[in-house]
Amino acid sequence: MRSFKLMAAAALVLLTAACGKNTQIEGTLYETPDSQVIVKLLDVNRFQVLDSVKTDSKGHFSYGLDLKKAQPEFVYLFYGDRQIASLLLQKGDKVKVQTDTLGAYSVEGSQESEKLQKVEQEYNSFMRDMEHIMAREIDPEASLSRRYVAYYRDRIAYVMGNTKSLTVVPVLFQQVNPTFPVFGQPTDGIMMQAVCDSLKTVYPESRYVKALEKEAQRRINILDVNARLQDAEEIGYIDINLPGIDGKNIKLSENLGKVTMVYFWQATAGQKMFNLDALVPIYEQFHGKGFEVYAVSLDSDKAAWASAIRNQKLPWVNVCDTRGAQSPYVVSYGIGSLPMVWFIVDGNVDGEAKVSNASDIRNYLRKKL
């Protein structure tokens, strides 16, 4: 009897702990008795597994989590590798989810989760339409453009009509493909910042709002660079001002030769070999004739970059932009891949220069110096 009482007490403690969470999910996964539902949290740009929950003989499951006030979280349910439900939960929510293994789901008890479901349905419909156009039409460009523009305008209307709903955050990060965001214009940064300002009045500590604000600032920085590009006719290039190995900023405009190679790179093994095998000999051959190199590293790991500079004893100007692909100079100088070079000749970018290897660079310099 005493053993039974202890077991009952332990069970009661576990039940109380499960029910003691401030936010609850009650769900049904159809036709999958005694299986596992994986619960994941969106940690800005990656999923974090919170737990796995077993369904009972009827496919029912429940899960509780503690959320902070004014810090809603995006929570996703998975069956194996397949996402089967998307939730935007606030402290105190008690939601009911019904879904199947293919992800056809319904949700009750959370207005934000219902809006998120609609947002995802509309996005999926848009993507299916784009795929259908690509597969069925011989010359799809015009149709793709019309469908995209219609969706883009509709999403702007949604965002501006829901500026205090966190459901606008995934909308603003939607992509047509990995290189084509739905909101891909630098001017979209102004709208993103306006939405951030509104969301911060409700969710000042939200990780998702902070991520959106960071992206908004990146877009605004690009706008600023583009504006300066329009005013750059006097000097013929966009100036660069970044920290060198000692932490002090070094301007491109203060380190020009008769021919200056602006060299964008990263401290990877292959590109480090290119430094020693190709660029150092070229620099030694042409530096005395007026050749300069202004090397911009796009390494996020500044220590690795600095180590490469010291170990290779690179003799030219070396600066680092730890923003990497987010650097505004990536946009203003049209950096599509690394390494990449631009030549400034007598104070103007030579847009006609075409080089892809050490031999091309040598031939170009022989002509210019």
In short:
With 369 residues, this protein is an alpha+beta fold. It has helices at residues 2-19, 111-136, 141-161, 168-172, 188-200, 207-230, 269-286, 302-312, 328-332, 358-368; strands at 23-29, 36-42, 47-54, 60-65, 73-79, 82-89, 94-99, 106-108, 175-177, 180-181, 241-243, 249-251, 259-265, 291-297, 317-320, 340-345, 348-349.
Write the layout of secondary structure elements.
Elements: H1 2-19, E1 23-29, E2 36-42, E3 47-54, E4 60-65, E5 73-79, E6 82-89, E7 94-99, E8 106-108, H2 111-136, H3 141-161, H4 168-172, E9 175-177, E10 180-181, H5 188-200, H6 207-230, E11 241-243, E12 249-251, E13 259-265, H7 269-286, E14 291-297, H8 302-312, E15 317-320, H9 328-332, E16 340-345, E17 348-349, H10 358-368
Parallel strand pairs: 1-7, 13-14, 14-15
Antiparallel strand pairs: 1-4, 2-3, 2-5, 5-6, 7-8, 9-10, 11-12, 13-16, 16-17
Helix pairs in contact: 2-3, 5-6, 7-10
Protein model, in words:
By secondary structure, the protein is α+β, with helices and mostly antiparallel strands. It is built from ten helices and 17 strands. A hairpin with a 2-residue loop joins strand 16 and strand 17. The N and C termini lie far apart (about 100 Å).
